[in-house]
Structures are given as structure tokens and as C-alpha cells.
Specification:
By secondary structure, the chain is of the alpha+beta class. Strands 11, 12, 13, 14, 15, 16 and 17 form a seven-stranded mixed sheet that branches. The protein has a six-stranded antiparallel sheet with strand order 3-2-7-4-5-6. A four-stranded antiparallel sheet has the order 1-10-9-8. Helix 8 runs antiparallel to helix 9. The longest helix is centred in the middle third of the chain and has 64 residues. This is histidine kinase. Its EC number is 2.7.13.3. One of its GO terms (molecular function) is ATP binding.
Length: 607
């Protein structure tokens, strides 16, 4: 049983802990990434909603745009850009080129017009430095004549390539909007023929002169250094220009490059005049990295956690099982009537309460069993006493009955016997003895029944002794015994009649066994709270082996129980019961030349 409960608790605790760990592992493996993405999308969407209400969308400049984009990144860990109705970054006048176009027969609407080309669409900001060897020569100074090739959409020119001249448009050092070029390759197959495409999206080649070049400085350049984000902005512009984003207000698309996933948010902002677009992009790389790290690290976590779980479960199960095992041991001992041990109570919980109740039950059972054993022992002694009593009574009554029977036979056979009066006197004496014996037996039985109640009072013990000595004076004189009485005047608390009976028994016993011409000494020892009464008869001793038996009923100090010494043999037994009812110490002992009987009584307290 002990192994069973510890083992079961260990298995249960370990199983629960492992189930929790497994649930966490499965939840993190299966749902954590989806949960993270959902939370990320919600956070960015909420941020975009709040930014739609910002005044910066309607009125702003490059500097305020940079601050808003940085604040948005700090709030949502996502990049943000505000685009105009053509898909260009708004407030990007710090990184642009203005060109005054020459006359064009292909696109007369562009003749002598001045256009602005956002340079981030055709070059990286890292290259926009005159010290960079990749920086195009034709951008080094204003007034340079350049060639532009692009498509016309709604009478607007969207440059695809920019070069020093027409031949330079296909060389490596040209400027090119790759997203717009690639989009053209994607869109052309949608048409039945390239000619049809060109009718819809005419391609133009124009020349112009650079009138102004503005390159970002210091912090302004950071806005254009996220090449991935700008590529997605240009890709969106291409979709917008070719109508792939028509009739859409808010979109959420997935994008993945180099095994890194991104979420792209586009929300249309309707306002007075042309619409604008909030373009945001966030990376899901952190959750992917965290998930991969957790997967690779989970093995160590599981091993370490399993070890801790096993140790904790073992300790936990033993801690709970130990009190139960002690209770089991205790109850097994109780079943064998062994109540010597107690369960230590070390806690105030349900186990502590159970231990306390079992201890109380053990005490109650022990008390009842002890009381039952005492009752059985008492009953056994009573049965033994009853047998001895019947035996003693039978023995005591046998002799007088035999005497009566003999006298009756003699008187029957010899009715005119001259000793008729003698036989009548003998029968009368035996009847008196039997009457005295019956009275003593009834009195002793009343004391031994346990129902007799003493009524206590106070009296002078010295006066009582003087009256008893005076009453027994004839018997003392008959045996020529010298009586010496030395009693101090002391008032005691006891039942006077019963104490008188005890003293009479002691004195009668002393007179009976004191040889003629010897002495009886009655004295007292007064203490603070008690007084000891001594009655010593001189001349005889009681054998030490019989000293303990003198208080038994019908014991006369002689094996033959001769009746020559008189008495019923119940005097000392009655005295013993009376003194025990008083709770008074008593006893008998051999002295140098006699036998001393004594008992103690409580003195009356002084008022």
C-alpha cells in the first residue's frame, strides 16, 4: 500500500506536469506563430487607423514625414510611407530632379514642360553622393542635357530609364525604375499584341535639361535607405498605374523574400482632392527566429523541466504520502490495541485535522478499554471474593450448626437429662454468635457494595477514645491488662459512628490477643493537618507472612481458624472498608514487643 500511494501520486503529478509542458509546446508550435501574426496585423492596422486622422497627411513636409514615419516604426515596428494619387512618396522634395523638357513630336503635351522625377524611383540613396564612383556624371551639375524614356499614362510621363543620351539608356550607368520596367513585362502579355499595349500605354523618348537636383543630407537620407521597402512602394506604384489596384480601399498582402515573410498594408485615404495611400510594411522575421530558436532550444528545456518535474513530483508525493503512511501505521497499531504512539501533527490542513481526530479516537478507545479491563478485573475479584465469602460463611456457620445439631440430638434422646439447661445455654450462645456473624456480614457487604455514603462531621477524637476505653474497661480488667492512654485533644473530620466502630474493632482485637498482665498503649501523633491514632498491644507478634492477610475477612491469624479467641473474623475487614471510605491511611506493623495498628484522620481546619 505504501509503495502504491507514493507511486500513484508520483505518476499523477508527473503526468499532469508533462501534460502542461506538452500543451505549451504544442500551443507554441502550432498556434504561437498565427497568434503573433494576428496580433501584429491588429497592431499595425490600429496604428494606421489612428494615423489616418493625423493632420500630417494633408499638410506636411519632408521633415515632418520623417518624424511621423519614425514614430510609427517605434509604435508598431512597421515601416510607413504616405503616397500620393500617382503612387509617389509625398513630401519627397528633398530627393528629386527637375527637368525642363524639349520639344517633342511624339508627345506634344510634354513639349517645353517641366517635370519632377523623384530620384528614389531610379537610384539608391547610397549612390546619391558625388564622391561615389557609381554616381552618374550627368547628375553632377545642373544644366546637363539628358534623355528620358517612359510610358504615358493619363498624359503623365513616368520615366523608366534616364541617361546621358539615347545610347546611354541601355548602358549600365543609366538610371532605371526596375519595378516599373518589370511591371511592363508582366502587363504586356495581357494584351493580344504589343501594338495594342502601346496604344494603351504609349512609350515616349524625350530630351530635357536638368534645372534642379536635390539630394538628401544626413538624417534625411535615412528615409531612402530601406531599399526593400522602397522597392515595394515602387511595385505598388506600378500596380496602381496599371490599374491592378483599382476599386480597392484597404489591402493586406503577404510578401516573402530570402525566406523572410512580410505583411504589406495599403489603406486608401479619401480626402478633398486626389486620394492618398498609407503604405506600411512589417517583417515577421522576429517570430520566425523566435520559433526556430524555441524549437531548437525546446529539447534542453524539456530535459531540464522533466528533471525538475520528476524531483518535484517525488518530493511532493512523499510529502503528501508521509502523513498518510503514519496514519496507516497508527491505525494498524490501534487495530492491535496498541495505543502507545501518537501521530505528530505538523500542519493545520485536512491531514492535520485527520491526525488530530485519530489521536483523540485513540485516547478514547484506550480509556474505554482500560475502563473495561478494570471492570473485568473488578468483576473477577468480586467473583473471587464471592466464592471466598461463601466458603468462609459456610465454614463459620458449620461449627455453630454442628453444635446446635448435637445439642438437639442429645435433648431428643435424653429429654430428662440433668444437663438440659447447659445444652440450652450452649444453643443460645451459638445462635447469638450466628446472629452477630450475619450482622457483620451484612454490614461488610453494604460497605463493599460501593453504594454506602458517609456523612462527615467533626468531633473530638480524644473524647471518643476515652468513652470507648471506659466501655471496654471490664474486658480489660478481666484479663488484668494495663491500659495506657496518651491522646492529645484534637478535633477531626470524619463519620464519628464509623470511626468508633474502627476503634472498637482495634481495641477488641488488642484485648483479645494481649496476654494477661500485659499492656495496651493508645497514643496519637498530631501533625499540622492530620492526626495519627496508634493502638499497640504488647506481648505477641503477627508473623510477617501473615501481616498482609489480617485485613481479609474471616482471617484470625490461625490456619485452623479456631473460634476460641472469639469474634467473627470480620472486624478488621470492616475496619478496612470504613477507613478506605474515609480515604484515611491505615496499617499494622510489628513493634519491638507487640503489634501496632494505626490510622490517620484529617484535622478540622481552624476558623
Amino acid at each position: 500500500m505504501r509503495k502504491s500511494i507514493v507511486f500513484k501520486l508520483f505518476l499523477l503529478t508527473t503526468g499532469l506536469c508533462l501534460l502542461v509542458i506538452a500543451s505549451i509546446f504544442v500551443g507554441q508550435t502550432v498556434f504561437f506563430k498565427q497568434f503573433y501574426v494576428h496580433q501584429k496585423v491588429e497592431k499595425v492596422s490600429d496604428a494606421l487607423q489612428s494615423y489616418q486622422q493625423d493632420e500630417w497627411i494633408h499638410v506636411g513636409d519632408a521633415e515632418s514625414a520623417i518624424m511621423k514615419e519614425q514614430a510609427f516604426y517605434q509604435d508598431s515596428n512597421a515601416w510607413l510611407a504616405l503616397l500620393d494619387e500617382r503612387g509617389y512618396l509625398k513630401y519627397a522634395d528633398d530627393f528629386k530632379m527637375e527637368i525642363r523638357l524639349e520639344h517633342s513630336d511624339i508627345a506634344p503635351i510634354l513639349s517645353n514642360a517641366t517635370i519632377t522625377v523623384p530620384l528614389y524611383t531610379v537610384m539608391d540613396v547610397e549612390e546619391a553622393n558625388a564622391d561615389n564612383p557609381l554616381f552618374p556624371d550627368f547628375l553632377r551639375k545642373e544644366g546637363q542635357r539628358i534623355a528620358l524614356e517612359g510610358i504615358m499614362i493619363q498624359d503623365q510621363l513616368y520615366p523608366q530609364r534616364i541617361g546621358r543620351d539615347v545610347f546611354n539608356l541601355r548602358q549600365e550607368n543609366r538610371l532605371e525604375n526596375e519595378q516599373l520596367v518589370n511591371k511592363e513585362y508582366e502587363v504586356v502579355p495581357r494584351f493580344e499584341s504589343p501594338l495594342e499595349y502601346r496604344e494603351r500605354y504609349p512609350s515616349v523618348l524625350v530630351y530635357g535639361t536638368i534645372t534642379q537636383i536635390r539630394l538628401p543630407q544626413a538624417e534625411q537620407a535615412s528615409r531612402y535607405m530601406n531599399r526593400l521597402f522602397l522597392d515595394r512602394v515602387k511595385a505598388f506604384q506600378a500596380d496602381l498605374l496599371y490599374g491592378d489596384y483599382a476599386d480597392q480601399t484597404n489591402t493586406l498582402t503577404d510578401y516573402e523574400v530570402n525566406d523572410i515573410a512580410y505583411k504589406i498594408f495599403v489603406e486608401r485615404v479619401d480626402q478633398t482632392g486626389p486620394p492618398a495611400y498609407l503604405f506600411a510594411m512589417t517583417s515577421l522575421q522576429p517570430v520566425n527566429e523566435a520559433t526556430e530558436v524555441m524549437r531548437s532550444y525546446y529539447g534542453y528545456i524539456v530535459i531540464g523541466t522533466l528533471l525538475l518535474v520528476v524531483l518535484a513530483s517525488l518530493y511532493f508525493s512523499r510529502r503528501i504520502a508521509a502523513p498518510l503512511l503514519r496514519i496507516d501505521t497508527m491505525t494498524q497499531r490501534m487495530a492491535k490495541l496498541d495505543f502507545s504512539n501518537k501521530i505528530p501533527i505538523k500542519s493545520e490542513d485536512e491531514i492535520g485535522s485527520l491526525s488530530r481526530n485519530i489521536n483523540q479516537l485513540s485516547d478514547m478507545l484506550n480509556a474505554h478499554i482500560v475502563r473495561l479491563e478494570q471492570d473485568i478485573e473488578k468483576e473477577r475479584r468480586l467473583e473471587q471474593t464471592r466464592k471466598e465469602f461463601i466458603s468462609g460463611v459456610s465454614h463459620e456457620l458449620k461449627t455453630p450448626l454442628s453444635v446446635l445439631e448435637s445439642c438437639l440430638y442429645i435433648m431428643k434422646d435424653k429429654a430428662d437429662s440433668p444437663r438440659r439447661d447447659y445444652y440450652f445455654a450452649a444453643m443460645e450462645d451459638e445462635v447469638k454468635k450466628m446472629n452477630l456473624l450475619v450482622n457483620d456480614m451484612l454490614e461488610l457487604a453494604r460497605y463493599e457494595s460501593g453504594t454506602y455514603k458517609l456523612e462527615m462531621d467533626s468531633f473530638r477524637i480524644d473524647e471518643l477514645l476515652e468513652r470507648i476505653c471506659a466501655k471496654l474497661a471490664p474486658d480489660i480488667a478481666e484479663k488484668n491488662i494495663h491500659l495506657h492512654v496518651g491522646i492529645s485533644p484534637v478535633e477531626v473530620v470524619a463519620n464519628q459512628n464509623r470511626i468508633e466502630q474502627v476503634i472498637v474493632n482495634f481495641m477488641t482485637n488488642a484485648i483479645r490477643y494481649t496476654p494477661e498482665h500485659n499492656h495496651i498503649v493508645v497514643s496519637s501523633d498530631v501533625e499540622t493537618d492530620t492526626v495519627k491514632i496508634n493502638i499497640e498491644n504488647k506481648g505477641v507478634h503477627i508473623p510477617s507472612e501473615q501481616m498482609k492477610k489480617i485485613w481479609d475477612r474471616f482471617y484470625r491469624g490461625e490456619h485452623s481458624r479456631h473460634r476460641t479467641t472469639g469474634g467473627t473474623g470480620l472486624g478488621l475487614a470492616i475496619s478496612k472498608q470504613i477507613l478506605e471510605l474515609h480515604g484515611a491511611p491505615y496499617g499494622a506493623m510489628n513493634t519491638e514487643d507487640g503489634v501496632l495498628f494505626y490510622f490517620e484522620l484529617k484535622r478540622k481546619a481552624k476558623m
